[in-house]
Amino acid sequence: MNALADLFSLLFAPFDPVVLHELIVAVPLLLASFDPVFLAIFVIPICRFFVPDVCIWVAHTVKRIRDGTRGTRLVPARTPLVSIVIAGRNEAEGIAGTLRSVLGCGYPNLEIIYVDDGSDDDTVQTARRVAQAAGRAKIRVFAAPRRNGKPSALNIGIALARGEFIAIIDADCDLQYGSIQNWLLPFADPLMGAVAANLRVRNSRQSWLTRLQECEYALNITLSRLWRSRVDFLSIVPGAGGMFRAEILKDLGGFDTGLGDDTDMTLKLRKQGWRLGFALEAVVWTDVPVTSRALLRQRTRWERNMVKIRLRKHGDLAYFTRFGLRNALLLLDLLLVRIVLPVIAIAALAMIAVNGPAETEFVVHMYWLSVVGALIKLMIARDIASTPQPARLVTALALPFYRVVLRTFLLLAVAREALRLGQRHAYVPLHIWRETPHW
Amino acid sequence: MNSLTRPVRPVTKKTTVEAVEFPRSGSAPVPSADERRVEILRTIARSGGTLLPTRVPHAKFGHSFGEIGDDAAGDLAYLAKRDYLTEKFFDRVSLCPTCSGHEINLREVCPSCGSSHLKDEKLLHHFRCGFVAPVTAFAGDGGQHVCPKCNAHLSHLGRDHDRLGSAYTCADCATSFQDPPVGAVCLSCGTASKADDLLHADVHSYKLTSLGAAAANRGTLYEQDDEFLYLGELPVYRPTVFLELIEQEARRIKRYKSAFSVMVLQWGSGSAGTADQAPIADSLRALRSQLREIDLLGQIDERSYGILLPGTEKRGARVVERRAAAIAPQAAACRSDVVVVKSPDDLRRLEAALFERSP
């Protein structure tokens, strides 16, 4: 009983008014002292992960109050031809739903090109059936003779596209009604080169892991990309939902083969000086990995993309005299968020584990700070973008654990890629791998 | 229940072409339909018993039957249906859905605007950089292929680049696609239609049957309800009548839960032809004398005959088989097969035995 009581008081110590008072008094002193540990563990993460979200919420709220409604509905001035390019392989189960969702998205001037990347199931036949039912060449299906990888398949679609804008979505996604119109709105800016869609989790109820990912997407995709696009700090237009000016894609010769095709294209656009936007109301629903194994496989690939593409292939973004200060800061931010801060956090936890129970109270304080921060951010995301579902807010309790565990595994993936161990990824077919440069 | 009919080659939904009446001339007396048909039988008999169409561009349906005339399709179909002739598939003709003309121009068209102004371009894919474009975009000096994206030379097909097949581009609306649909335009009336909407008419060759030969000799057609043809003096049910009798028997056993059997006798190809029916007739006469009165003998085709054995199950069928074997010296070239029918599955086997026979 005593042990339980001790545990209880330890876990909820931060909510003790006395403890809270001590913390509130200590913070300004620590700030004034420029204590490096305090800066690294508290100040920088709060400034980087919390302040921007609060700022975007304030801006959003001010706009809402000023407009007097819950956001003004804008429509694009014209309806240019938009080509939806979908590349897929062995998507017999999902392709019909994807094509129908695009057909029913409510945009009048559309062409849909599905490129099959060497499927060995009924994907092509299914797609052709839907195309035939749709009639009048609304959907065109191109079956590549063999698997060449997603970038090459997308490039086939780009070569066949006639539209002024090309939107790329995955073959297992659903396009929400009205998304195309909202996706086009940022292109009123002639300097806008590409716009990312708002990726939402479709299968959030499937497991505890998908519920966590729904929260993660709300924070790291919806909220994060929203404020980043406002300050022209967007670092990715995803391949699962990105719209580009067609002339840009064609001038660049489409996507490069290998890993990280969407990251690569995004950074090429940034180097050319194009702005990148985010369309909150252009919603693309996608399925996230259900099992931890599938999740790790996906995130490991993303981390490898980060090292290969952002650090090696486009590491020259650091030269701010060539590509501007903003792009250099983008690289710095990447290093900070994906490598430096996770290393510090995990190292700190490791040290605490070594030092023993003396630092346990500190860990508990950090945990609750993370939970409160995550809760506030989730409520902000809920208010601005109606995601995640209210029932998911309780997931804030598990988010710190999820992030620490995931980050630990992903740092290993970063280290492996940095040391060039286990180079080839199944995402890239062998005959393509042999010919492409290995960044 | 499967209907036991002669298997018909599947055709598209709008296939029936109505028989064309002969045009009436002012002076000559117009022959009656039967007279016309008998004359056709005589013509076929004079030309050796076989009528083969020839391809003539401006004839009806692009095929001509020589002196019989191009408008005899209806009469020929009539005669085939009544077993005066046997028909064999010769060719299928596509027809305009508007005017039934056979002079059709088929070509690939754009699925978006229907234009036939298409350009076919072969697509190349460069492995190194993923660039995809028509072959013309890769043209370099000296006939080599150079990637316009990364300036690399493409040297080995399959190793550094591959062909993705053709992409058709419509010169009118710029739509690009992989598999162009086929469109048709009638050269007679100008109607444009999809290839799937074209009508179809089958053209057949014909062969005179023994019934047809007899009718040609007699100078009149037999009554429509005449069920028999004659092998010498032996009456044998005509094929269509024999099949109807089998169908009737099948309906009866379904109702009364009993069985029947059919013995199929097939003679070798040396026995084919109207002039060579004597050995068959002798064998059948001998066998008929061994059967009950209620057992029915019918023709399936020139070389195959069947015996319908009502109310006969396995044991009874074996008895008939033994009796048939006993007349084996007279039917040396004959192959027999007995099918006992008690259920719908047996009907399928019977159908196979009746129609899928060895050449």
Question: Can you tag this structure with a few keywords?
Answer:
heterodimer, A: 439 residues, alpha/beta, eight-stranded mixed beta sheet, B: 359 residues, alpha+beta, elongated
Description of the molecule:
The complex is a heterodimer of chains A (439) and B (359). With 439 residues, chain A is of the alpha/beta class. Chain A is 56% helix and 12% strand. Chain A contains 17 helices and 8 strands. Chain A has helices at 2-11, 17-33, 36-49, 51-67, 95-103, 123-134, 150-160, 179-184, 208-230, 246-251, 261-271, 292-313, 320-323, 325-355, 360-385, 399-418, 430-435; strands spanning 82-88, 110-116, 139-143, 165-170, 174-175, 192-201, 241-245, 275-286. In chain A, strands 3-2-1-4-7-6-8-5 form an 8-stranded mixed sheet, sandwiched between helices. In chain A, α4 runs parallel beside α15 (360-385) and α14 (325-355) crosses α16. The longest helix of chain A has 31 residues, at 325-355. Chain A is globular. Chain A starts with a helix and ends with a helix. Chain B is an alpha+beta fold and 359 residues long. Chain B is built from 7 helices and 20 strands. Chain B has a 4-stranded antiparallel sheet with strand order 7-6-10-11, with no helix packed on it. In chain B, strands 18-19-17-20 form a 4-stranded antiparallel sheet, sandwiched between helices. In chain B, β8 and β9 (153-154) form a beta hairpin. Chains A and B meet through β3, α7 and α17 of A and β7, β10 and β11 of B.
| Weakly predicted, low-confidence segments of chain B | 5-26, 271-275
Determine the fraction of residues in helical runs of chain A and give it as a percent range: 55-70%
Nearest-angstrom radius of gyration of chain B? Answer: 30 Å
For the CA atoms, what is the radius of gyration of chain A? 23 Å
Main sheet of chain A?
Answer: 8 strands, mixed
- Sheet with the most strands: spatial strand order of chain A: 3-2-1-4-7-6-8-5
Secondary structural class of chain B: alpha+beta
- The residue-averaged pLDDT of chain A reads 88
Tell me the fraction of residues in β-strands of chain B, as a range.
25-35%
Strand and helix order of chain B: HEEEHEEEEEEEEEEEHEEHEHEEHEH
Strand order of the biggest β-sheet of chain B:
7-6-10-11
Count of helices of chain B?
Answer: 7
Q: Which stretches of chain A are poorly predicted, pLDDT < 50 over at least 5 residues?
A: none
Specify the overall morphology of chain B: elongated
- Total beta strands of chain A: 8
Structural category of chain A is alpha/beta
- Looking at the structure, what is the overall shape of chain A? globular
- List how many beta strands of chain B DSSP finds: 20
Helix content of chain B: 10-25%
Order of helices and strands of chain A: HHHHEHEHEHEEHEHEHHEHHHHHH
